[in-house]
Amino acid sequence: MTADGCLFCRIAAKKIPAKILHEDADVVAFADIAPQAPVHVLVIPRRHVASLKDVGEGEAALMMKLIGVFNKLAKELGVAESGYRLVSNIGDDAQQSVPHLHLHLLGGRPFRWPPG
Questions:
Q1: Kind and range of the H or E element at 3?
Q2: Tens digits of per-residue pLDDT, 36-80?
Q3: Catalytic residue numbers?
Q4: How would you write 13-56 as a 3-class SS string?
Q5: CB 9 within 8 A of CB 3
Q6: Residue 15: phi, psi to the nearest 5?
Q7: Coil, strand or helix: which one is 76?
């Protein structure tokens, strides 16, 4: 899939509407349209990366930026103290539905272990 045809690239470019909760030059975060928890946010890099397995060694700064956005949003959305889950589905068996790196921030309710 090309970046032009990618759903999340189109959301980041504001060609498709979304409830944007954070955006900067490198990262966009928006509310999931089918939330699985009271707080369910997707955090993506603006640049098209197919999945977490495609992140190279030279992209540590991008990954740190994603983590910083998670921490900021967890505080803003009131789940930093009670706890939250970060999830990245990678590939078909893990149910990755959009081939663009996206991490789910889930919170606002107790979770069970193991997931899935």
A1: none
A2: 999 999 999 999 999 988 898 888 899 999 999 999 999 999 999
A3: 102
A4: CCCCCCCEEEECCCEEEEECCCCCCCEEEEEEECCCCCCHHHCC
A5: yes
A6: -85, -15
A7: helix
